[in-house]
Amino acid sequence: MQFDKMHGLGNDFILIHELNIPEDSAVFWRKICDRHEGIGADLVVVYNDDDLFRLRTRFFNCDGSEAEICGNAARCLGKLVEMRTGISSCNLVSAKRSYPVTICEDGRVRVDMGEPDFSSTAVGTKDELLTNFVDHLSDYSIDATAVIAVSVGNPHLVIVLKELPSDDIIELIGDRIATHRIFAHGINVSFAQLVSDDAINLRVFERGVGLTRACASGATAAACGIRHLGLISANDISVHQSGGDLSISCGDTVSQTGSAHHVFSGVYTA
Predict the structure, then answer these.
(1) pLDDT digits (tens, 9 = 90+) for 53-88
(2) Residue 20: is its pLDDT beyond 90?
(3) Given the residues 70, 76, 90, 250, the one annotated as active site
(4) pLDDT band at 193, cuts 50/70/90?
(5) 195: Cβ–Cβ under 8 A, 6 or more apart, which residues?
(6) Among 33, 76, 90, 215, which one carries the catalytic annotation?
(7) Percent of residues, the chain, with pLDDT higher than 90
(8) Is 215 a known active-site residue?
(9) pLDDT at 95
(10) Alpha-carbon distance 41 to 95, whole Å?
(11) Three-class SS of residue 42?
(12) Which residues contact 51 (CB under 8 A, 6 or more apart)?
């Protein structure tokens, strides 16, 4: 199986053309994502590039579950297309949306994430369940100043705090929230701290992965969610994560721009 290893802000991926997949199973994704006995990655990207205007993609978390989209992986796949073809723009098509991807003049990659959806149904729950859940976040020892749920192609719960918790606390609380029964398909959990009117500090517990160095869909959800709450007014927001910074541009639709790096290519033999 031929593959490429890439990362966006330390969030790392195995990219595989669908023709090279020996088997489509959760067991296989867990095996190759294992950092000790496999290639090692947070997520697997399976793609078909026969038509770059409709580049079909699927995303599999390291626990074997399937995700709707991964923003960092989208940038990496756009970068891989440029490396292989010289084409600086393409369209990624996932199960629910199309995501235009463009290589910027400075080498960074921009992904149009579409229109954010703030309805409870978009994150797989009901209004009354979500309201009750948010009202009892103190049960998780969280002193939130604001909370908002938003889908940017995948579901996110954005929790705004005065100070970010430690990684150990984020992993403990994040796992409990991400798998809570009120969210039909699980949810990504973003812990956000306001820095200024155009900057946010962020840590994200990703559903099916855990705490990662960066999450682009989480950064998108946090920026547009916090702006929707009226806590910041800037259209262009810098989101700082442990793996680096992302630029989020908010409007009727929202886009995220950041780096993408090719690490190596290889052949995996089971």
Answers:
(1) 999 999 999 999 999 999 999 999 999 999 999 999
(2) no
(3) 70
(4) very high
(5) 201, 240
(6) 215
(7) 90
(8) yes
(9) 78
(10) 22
(11) coil
(12) none
Angle at 123 between CA 121 and CA 128, to 5 degrees: 55
Distance from C-alpha of 57 to C-alpha of 76, rounded to nearest angstrom: 12
240 phi, psi to nearest 5 deg: -95, 125
Determine contact, residues 73/79, Cβ cutoff 8 Å.
no
pLDDT tens track for 109-133 = 999 999 999 999 999 999 999 999 9
Q: Which domains does the chain have, with CATH numbers?
A: 2-107+260-267 (3.10.310.10), 120-251 (3.10.310.10)
Confidence of residue 141 (pLDDT cuts 50, 70, 90): confident
Query: Using N-to-C axis directions, what is the helix angle for 216-228 and 71-85, rounded to 10°?
Result: 130
- Cα–Cα distance, 163 to 207 (Å, whole number): 22
Whether 62 is catalytic: no
